[in-house]
Design brief:
heterodimer; A: Uridine Diphospho-n-acetylenolpyruvylglucosamine Reductase, domain 2; Uridine Diphospho-n-acetylenolpyruvylglucosamine Reductase, domain 3; 2 domains; five-stranded antiparallel sheet; three-stranded parallel sheet; 34% helix; 24% strand; B: alpha+beta; Ubiquitin-like (UB roll); DNA polymerase, domain 1; 38% helix; globular
């Protein structure tokens, strides 16, 4: 059993905001696959647990013109099985496929993965690379902001008595995308490192690397190299140098050493390039 | 504060008072004395505590008992009297897929859920369904073979 808390399951957003605005220590729970572990380890001990699972307005995947909107309560299974996601946002399909295991994917939500803002979060690097925006809802209405602004540090997102309502991605600007991760076992594990790559409609690239910095990491110099006419085998040495100089993953990680992580993100970048058909057969990886 | 929940467990209706911090696994094992569902890691990583919640397999150690209010749960005890259970049991015996047996109820629930989804799962689908379940004695091949036997 956990330390005592009260459990509330509001049926409307109005009720959620009333609960959030009361003067107490409350915690939102959706799938609970992260939070319940934290409660057990006493990393979190709220007075109130507000279960938002029943709120229909936070569920589902829809397309409006050139945008796909994913409700924050959409489960990982729903993302994995959605045709639109698989066709238009392949990196998100790949992330959903790698995520946890079958039972966890049935419960965990994309919103939960984002608001926990863990450095190796499955949806971190792909959503940053896709220039996703988030829709935040509070008692005074909704607002939209870029995910990089919303997710600003380890475990920190910009929410002030508000909820993450949805994640919005432009499908015209993001032509091709890929996600890869490395984990110790395939069945059920967290990422040791992960990488996402997006090719934009303007032929430019955006690559992001996970677990090498406090939030998903991008270096524009790498993306410039990827877009160069003369891009070839030796370009990876240049990219490796940039990674080596620009990131310093924490040495206390339980999963891998900083040196290993730095090598592996570049290796995963090759896999992403191969996925989107931009890596010659003469290049290993 | 304990509150009353209404739920159906193994086709039987229950009205039970449960404290908010109780997990579904604790409710099953400690309050209803259905000890077929096992607690392994307690963190949702090993799969030993898998039950079906509204037909979907979930980890009962990271589901709050209050969350099953108005919902339906099936545990290994609920499978016991069905034909499916006998078939799965016979396949496990035929392939020597049980040694200590601690992980078995979780595997059986995952396999039941898989066969509810499809009667002819591919190798990939079997691996996906069982991928989050840990077994420390027989290994996975015999369990995989047991599922293959059910598919034929």
């Amino acid at each position: 059993m956990f330390s005592p808390f009260e459990y509330k399951r509001p049926e409307t957003l109005q009720e959620v905001f009333e609960l959030l605005n009361q003067d107490n220590d409350s915690q939102i729970v959706a799938g609970g696959t992260d939070l319940l572990v934290k409660l057990r380890e006493a990393e979190s001990s709220p007075d109130f647990l507000i279960d938002i699972k029943e709120l229909e307005e936070l569920k589902g995947i829809e397309q409006n013109n050139d945008e796909i909107k994913i409700g924050s309560l959409t489960t990982i299974t729903e993302i994995k099985e959605n045709k639109l996601i698989k066709n238009k946002l392949y990196a998100l399909y790949q992330a959903a496929k790698e995520f946890g295991c079958y039972e966890i994917r049935n419960r965990a939500t994309i919103g939960g993965n984002v608001v926990h803002a863990s450095p190796g979060a499955e949806f971190g690097v792909p959503l940053f690379a896709l220039e996703a925006e988030v829709e935040v809802i509070g008692k005074n209405g909704t607002k939209r902001l870029p995910i990089e602004e919303f997710w600003y540090d380890v475990g920190r997102v910009k929410l002030d008595n508000e909820l993450l309502k949805s994640i919005i991605i432009n499908i015209d600007k993001n032509v091709k995308s890929s996600y890869h991760r490395l984990s110790r076992v395939e069945g059920m594990d967290l990422a040791v490192v992960n990488t996402a790559l997006v090719k934009k409609s303007n032929e430019k690239y955006r690559s992001y690397f996970g677990t090498v910095a406090r939030t998903p990491y991008r270096n524009e110099k790498i993306d410039e190299i990827l877009g160069e006419e003369k891009f070839n085998k030796s370009s990876f040495a240049e990219i490796q140098d940039i990674i080596n100089e620009s990131v310093s993953p924490r040495a206390s990680s339980l999963r891998a050493s900083p040196e290993y992580k730095k090598r592996m993100v570049v290796s995963l970048l090759k896999k992403c390039l191969r996925d989107i058909g931009e890596l010659g057969d003469d290049i290993d990886g | 504060m304990a509150k009353e929940i209404k739920t159906t467990i193994n086709n039987k209706e229950y009205k039970i008072e449960v404290p908010p911090q109780m997990t579904l696994l604790e409710l099953l094992r400690e309050k209803l004395i259905m000890t077929g569902t096992k607690e392994g890691c307690g963190n949702g990583e090993c799969g030993a505590c898998t039950v079906l919640l509204n037909d979907k397999p979930v980890r009962s150690c990271i589901v709050l008992a209050h969350e099953i209010d108005g919902k339906e749960v099936v545990t290994i005890e609920g499978l016991k009297d069905t034909g499916d259970f006998k078939e799965i049991k016979d396949a496990f015996i035929a392939e020597d897929a049980v040694q200590c047996g601690f992980c078995t109820p979780g595997f059986v629930m995952a396999i039941k859920a898989l066969l509810n989804r499809t009667k002819t799962p591919t190798n990939e689908e079997i691996k996906e369904a069982l991928g989050g379940h840990l077994c420390r004695c027989t290994g996975y091949e015999s369990i995989h073979r047991a599922v293959k036997r059910l598919v034929k």
